[in-house]
């Protein structure tokens, strides 16, 4: 059944994908549609493809609207108000943790291997955050076969991680050096510059391939290694804070706005996920 409300939910997921370090999978968790979303993606190439596509269409429409309409605003906010914006999203991420702890029933199910896995993921994401370099904004793209191939595999890996709550496709694109190229191409497309279409088509095909493969792998992991997968997701959620940590404010005014932004993000996330049940 086509659900119009899912356009709005897809819009929120799309906004998350524009922020390196914030996952649309996290937003799907908060919205209580993670299991349905993952299942629908995995069934696109099955005999149930019609129902899956009907479910996904409004989400895809919403995500597309967000990516095309909000990329300039997100770019402005990150460029001019980076500190409170980043701390708002850190609050949003941390607000997911209570829900994840409840879903995973960690007090009963977690053992030493689960905590070791969380620690490994935290250490890995901390290291990635330390060594990651900021991409330099680009002003022109020279389209070559190696670039298109790189964008295909970048899109594939980015979409695969997009399905996992905690680590965003944007962060993976940053680490692979493809983020600026894709963001630039999206902004040029809104200006009707059709020369960037090969870039977006290549990345788009990679995204589709990544979604189809990763959705099945994640579902298999959730069925057969349920609590290890919960530990993996919890580690990714906590570790994604390292990816967007902007440092500390320098002035009293900035401190005030930043603290308020942090608490606002946490409260929004916490109350969105408070009553969610069986979202994974």
Question: Explain this structure to me?
Answer:
It is a single chain. It is globular and about 55 Å long. The chain has helices at 5-17, 24-31, 34-42, 49-80, 82-94, 97-104, 106-109, 112-131, 145-162, 169-175, 179-190, 197-224, 226-244, 252-273. α4 (49-80) packs antiparallel against α5 and α8 (112-131) runs parallel beside α13. It has 280 residues and is mostly helical. The model has no long low-confidence stretch (mean pLDDT 84). The two termini are 21 Å apart. Helix content is 76%, strand content 0%. The protein has one domain (5-82, 112-246).
Rounded to an integer, what's the Rg over CA atoms?
18 Å
- Give a quick account of the main beta sheet: strands, pairing sense, barrel closure: none
Tell me the quaternary state.
Answer: single chain
Q: Could you state the order of secondary-structure elements as H and E?
A: HHHHHHHHHHHHHH
What percent of the residues sit in helical stretches (DSSP H or I)? Answer: over 70%
Helix-strand makeup class: mainly alpha
Number of domains: 1
Total helices: the number is 14
Give the N-terminus to C-terminus distance in angstroms. 21 Å
Strand content: under 5%
**Poorly predicted ranges (pLDDT <50, ≥5 residues)?**
none
Mean pLDDT: 84
Number of strands: 0
Overall shape: it is globular
């Amino acid at each position: 059944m086509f659900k119009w409300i899912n356009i709005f939910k897809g819009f929120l997921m799309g906004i998350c994908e524009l922020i390196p370090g914030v996952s649309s999978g996290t937003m799907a968790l908060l919205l209580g549609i993670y299991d349905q979303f993952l299942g629908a993606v995995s069934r696109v190439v099955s005999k149930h493809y019609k129902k899956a596509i009907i479910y996904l269409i409004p989400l895809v429409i919403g995500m597309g609207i967000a990516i095309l309409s909000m990329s300039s605003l997100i770019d402005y906010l990150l460029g001019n108000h980076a500190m409170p914006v980043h701390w708002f999203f850190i609050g949003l991420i941390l607000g997911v943790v209570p829900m994840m702890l409840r879903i995973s029933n960690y007090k009963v199910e977690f053992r030493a291997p689960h905590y070791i896995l969380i620690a490994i993921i935290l250490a890995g994401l901390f290291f990635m955050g330390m060594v990651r370099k900021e991409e330099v904004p680009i002003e022109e793209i020279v389209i070559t076969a190696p670039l298109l191939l790189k964008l295909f595999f970048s899109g594939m890996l980015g979409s695969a991680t997009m399905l996992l709550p905690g680590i965003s496709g944007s962060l993976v694109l940053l680490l692979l050096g493809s983020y600026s190229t894709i963001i630039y191409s999206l902004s040029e497309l809104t200006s009707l510059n059709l020369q960037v279409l090969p870039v977006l088509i290549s990345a788009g095909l990679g995204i589709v391939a990544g979604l189809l493969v990763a959705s099945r792998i994640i579902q298999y992991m959730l069925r057969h290694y349920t609590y290890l997968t919960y530990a993996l997701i919890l580690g990714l959620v906590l570790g994604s804070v390292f990816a967007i940590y902007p440092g500390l404010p320098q002035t009293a005014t900035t401190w005030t706005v930043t603290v308020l932004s942090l608490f606002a993000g946490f409260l929004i996330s916490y109350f969105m996920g408070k009553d969610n049940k069986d979202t994974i």
